[in-house]
Each structure stands twice: as C-alpha cells, then as structure tokens.
Amino acid sequence: MPKVKVKRASTTIDMTAMCDVSFLLLTFFILTATARAPEPLPVDTPASVTQVKVPDTDLGLITVGGDGKVFFGVKDRNVRARMLELMSEKYAMPFTEQERGRFSLMETFGVPMGNLKQLIALDANAQTQPGLQPGIPVDSTEALSNELFHWIYSARVATKELHNVEMRVSIKGDADEKYPEIKKVMDVLQSQKVNKFSLITSLKNTVE
Description:
Blueprint: H1 16-32, E1 47-48, E2 59-65, E3 69-74, H2 77-91, H3 97-103, H4 113-121, H5 124-127, H6 147-163, E4 168-173, H7 179-191, E5 198-199, E6 202-203
Parallel strand pairs: 1-6, 2-4, 4-5
Antiparallel strand pairs: 2-3
Helix pairs in contact: 2-6
C-alpha cells in the first residue's frame, strides 16, 4: 500500500517585527552615544596588565608627551568653568561669559595663560591641530610661572566647591617620554600633598 505524503508546513518566518526592533535599538544607541573629542596631544601609553577603569567623574587628567609638553583637563564642564574663574582671579586676566562657555567645552588644553584667549577663540577643529599648543608651563616653584600647579589647585578647589569631593588625578604619559618630564608633574602634585594618583596605561596582551 503506497505511503501517504504528509504536506509540509511552510517554514517562512516573518522578520518584520525583529527588523523594527533592531532599527529602534540602533537609532537609540546612535542618538545617545557621545562623540569622542580628538586629543590635541595624542600619546602612546605604555602597556601593562592592570585593568582598573579610570573614573568618569571628578577626575583631573594630566597628559605628558611630545618632548615634555604638558596638557591638563577635567571631566565636568561646570568644574572647568569654575576653574577658569579661579585662574582668572589668580592671574588678573578677565574672561567674558562667552569665553568661559567656550572653555567649558574644552576637555583638555596645553597653552600658557597668556595664549589661552587666542586658543578659546579658535573653533574646535583648529584647537586640536598638531603642534598648535606648546604645553602648560611647569616649574619647580609655586610662583606664577608654575601654571600647572595653579591649574591643578584651581581644579581641586572647584571640584570640592561643586561636588564636595576630592578630585582624583591621573597621569597619561607617552611610553617614549623621559622620566624627568614625568617627575616634574609628580613633584607638582606632591607639592600640593597629592600623593595618590593613577598612571594610565594600555592593556598588554598576555601569553598563556
């Protein structure tokens, strides 16, 4: 007796709902993502096996590279604005409200106080041109010539005023940078009794 063939059911799956969800998620991630600003002083950090994440808030970042150039930045926009106000009072250099607003958008910078207004006046792309910023003056004294000392101190005061916490400090140095240049920055921190700070490195590939 011949076998009766069973009619196969259709295996077609309607993907419309899944496509809609995928595009909604993609749109959400695009709209909520934050664009990473280009660094005016890119550095090649040394490798290590440490995997401690750098905090996203209440952080002051010191970048050293390019034969001793020093750059500084803080994470919070309000802290940046208050930090500039304190530096303006320290150096008797007034800034307009527009200049303070433009400065608050700069995540990192590296120019002497005398050149800061010219840097603020440039657009964001021009500010990050290689070689434009010569670095913040660093000296072994606490006089006005040691501008890095006062930028760090002002940032710490601003963070304490606005967030009521101590600002954490990280140093991001180029792997080829000479130790004496890094030592200058460490001396500035220790002159403010900041003896706890982190060194930013890239993750080293380990061989099993």
